[in-house]
Amino acid sequence: MAITISLFDLYKIGPGPSSSHTMGPMTAGLDFQKRLQKLDDEDLARADHLGVTLYGSLSATGKGHGTDRAVVAGLLGWHPEEVDPDEFDLLLTPEDKPRVFKIKNKELPCDQKTVAFGPIQHGFAHANTLEISLDAKGESILHKKYYSVGGGFIQWDGWRPLERKDPKYQFETMEGLKTILRKKGMDIPDVVMANEIAMTGLSGSEIEEKLDHILEVMESSLERGLNTRGPLPGEIGLGRKAAGLAQRAQEETHKPGRILLMFNAYALAVAEENAAGHVVVTAPTMGSCGVMPAVVRLAREYFRADRKTLRRGLMTAAVIGFLAKHNASISGAEVGCQGEIGVASAMAAAFLAQVRGASMDILANAAEIALEHHLGMTCDPVKGYVQIPCVERNAMGAVKAYNAYLLASAGDPGKQKVSFDQVIQVMLDTGRDMSCKYKETSLGGLAVSMAQC
Ligand code: SF4
């Protein structure tokens, strides 16, 4: 089946810190809220409880990720793109004003008891499962089980992809895409643009406008992060580093050192904003949201890339995310951090190759190299917060992306031994073999060894 993911399925705007544990559950809450509006008045009149149960990774790390707040925000009708981060921070805390769920004329209590943290081990179809139920005297009136499958996407039993028109150029592997490019004499951004127009019905200029908005939100989160100091929220007490690194860069007299310091600071700035629960862009997820803005800023500032070039870079990077999502996963709960920072780094490597005008082969090789050197990377966030190792991992992913592009542009690109399609398959197989301790449950790795921090 051809890939039918839209650019704006992949690049989504919302509050952090996690696309699977924050944005996905918020979207599930919002979906359930819409279903509630369709209930008849008789059912609503007898309803006495609206409740959520989180399972698996959502239960294990949901507190640190703000999953409880997120799903309640969705049930209150809040949209990820429009949510006020300060109001979101307060939700379900003792300092917040009293809230109620309003469903037509019916009002039901909304408090900390709304969300229950269920078993970590379960037999549901996806690691990130949540159930939402409207009940009357213990009996369900409306019940839905949701799977938060990564990158803010949700599914349910019987879910079908959004009905979209067929993409103009159909492919599901990098090799398939390369064949189209060779036959038609096109480049990746042209194919992505043609497909986006065909699938969504948007015009080229509307798509460009939306891409510009994505670039603006990336830039504003980066700027906010660069200008904020102090500790990140939560019990770890981790301090922000981006502003300090940027200051050190100003004092650095060695030019390459200065660029490297700033490049790290860019990635940290956005990752720290995400960890603070502020608005970022999924690229492909929130945990990995710092990698792409770092290369975008690098391209703008040091390679003097103009708006059009940046848009084309975003479209090329998106194809890498599409292929990873379609053929493997971009969910840390499914395949570990290789699917988040690894895929973000591969997207960023392809972005740099596109911006620098590299050939199709170099571009695919750059993405392959970046992902190859994240294979096996586990997801073990300390205390369930998207902070350790996540924040620094964004800086490492960005630096590796640049290096992957440099390595790919040396030598004969036709002699690359591992293809991008192969490395995606290896990522999936490795993720399947990975113990669930290392897939966003905080039951292994750093999460266990740093439990006292
Ligand atoms: S370790 Fe990686 S996959 Fe896990 S929460 Fe952090 S960024 Fe996401």
UniProtKB/TrEMBL annotation:
Gene Ontology biological-process annotations: gluconeogenesis
UniProt KW keywords: 4Fe-4S, Gluconeogenesis, Iron, Iron-sulfur, Lyase, Metal-binding
Chain ranges of the Serine dehydratase beta chain domain: 6-157
Serine dehydratase-like alpha subunit domain residues: 183-447
Entry keyword Zinc: no
Family per record: Belongs to the iron-sulfur dependent L-serine dehydratase family.
Cofactor annotation: [4Fe-4S] cluster
Highest taxon, organism lineage: Bacteria
Protein name in the entry: L-serine dehydratase
Keyword ATP-binding found: no
Cross-referenced Gene3D superfamilies: D-3-phosphoglycerate dehydrogenase, domain 3
